Inverse folding.
């Protein structure tokens, strides 16, 4: 239910936006969300003792969007009289949902490869135990059961992607998105999903907090790497989105206020849609890693440094032009 509500809100925002005008910025928002996850997968995950599934989940959360950070940015922009497109805030689901989907698919691919590697190691141990090669068939170990025979074959990606999309987490998320896009569920949304969402989210966050506390010892050994990532990543992600926004600005006339909004949603890390989605989609990831790095470091950096920085940069560009 939580994820259906997240999808519904995103679908409603997209349906109410001007899709013709937002086509290029929306494309860049999707690209940014996916790129953020890949950056985390191949930077944070490479640091010493950082578990890959934890890194992927953390990158997914940093690729997803915080509504509260976006609201803070809009308030500050309006106070300073910075204009932006009415639909610019609706870019958030274009970054939020692709980032979460990408994280879950990458985690599924990694898990599949790990299972294949474990099967190869098990086969080798049996091979050594039973001795000579000619005795394999007698002992019930045949060449056809050798996982290393498939070593040169790549892991088939589409079945894993399909399985991920059919999982309960993404199915609920995408169902809500489709309902928000194709129907008009505002009355049901306001009367049913919105009131329940806060209570259910509170329960989920309590459960995740208990799990995170139980597993906090795993994180203590690598906490410094998550702190470094959570400090640098929001600013880097925001600059990437700012660059894409400037391309849209020069091609389509996308406002500099809209560019700032794109940068802010890229710098933010989800506090609502991300945790339940990642908890369901990547259950083996440690919530201490992605929630702790986001709430303790990432969100304060985005609020205190990111928002003023991107607004100042946009104002400098306005003055230069």
């Amino acid at each position: 239910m939580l994820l259906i509500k997240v999808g519904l809100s995103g679908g409603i925002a997209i349906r109410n936006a001007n899709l013709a005008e937002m086509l290029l910025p929306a494309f860049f928002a999707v690209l940014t969300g996916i790129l953020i996850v890949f950056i985390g997968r191949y930077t944070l995950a490479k640091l010493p003792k950082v578990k890959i599934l934890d890194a992927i989940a953390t990158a997914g959360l940093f690729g997803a969007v915080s509504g509260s950070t976006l609201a803070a940015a809009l308030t500050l922009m309006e106070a300073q009289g910075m204009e932006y497109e009415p639909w610019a805030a609706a870019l958030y689901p274009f970054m939020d949902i692709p980032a979460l989907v990408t994280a879950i698919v990458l985690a599924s691919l990694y898990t599949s490869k790990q299972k294949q590697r474990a099967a190869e190691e098990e086969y080798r141990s049996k091979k050594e135990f039973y001795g000579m090669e000619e005795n394999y068939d007698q002992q019930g170990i045949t060449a056809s059961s050798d996982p290393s025979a498939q070593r040169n074959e790549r892991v088939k990606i589409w079945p894993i992607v399909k399985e991920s999309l059919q999982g309960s987490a993404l199915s609920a998320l995408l169902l809500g998105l489709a309902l928000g896009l194709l129907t008009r569920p505002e009355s049901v949304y306001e009367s049913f999903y919105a009131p329940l969402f806060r209570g259910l989210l509170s329960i989920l966050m309590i459960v995740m907090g208990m799990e995170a506390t139980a597993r906090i010892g795993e994180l203590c050994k690598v906490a410094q790497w998550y702190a470094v990532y959570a400090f640098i990543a929001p600013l880097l992600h925001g600059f990437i989105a700012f660059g894409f926004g400037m391309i849209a600005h020069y091609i389509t006339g996308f406002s500099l206020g809209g560019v700032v909004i794109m940068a802010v949603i890229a710098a933010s890390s989800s506090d609502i849609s991300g945790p339940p989605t990642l908890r369901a989609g990547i259950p083996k990831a440690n919530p201490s890693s992605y929630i702790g790095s986001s709430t303790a470091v990432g969100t304060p950096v985005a609020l205190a440094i990111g928002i003023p920085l991107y607004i100042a940069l946009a104002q400098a560009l306005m003055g230069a032009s």
Remarks:
- The radius of gyration is 22 Å.
- The domain at 2-320 is CATH 1.20.1530 (Na+/H+ antiporter like fold).
- The mean pLDDT is 79.
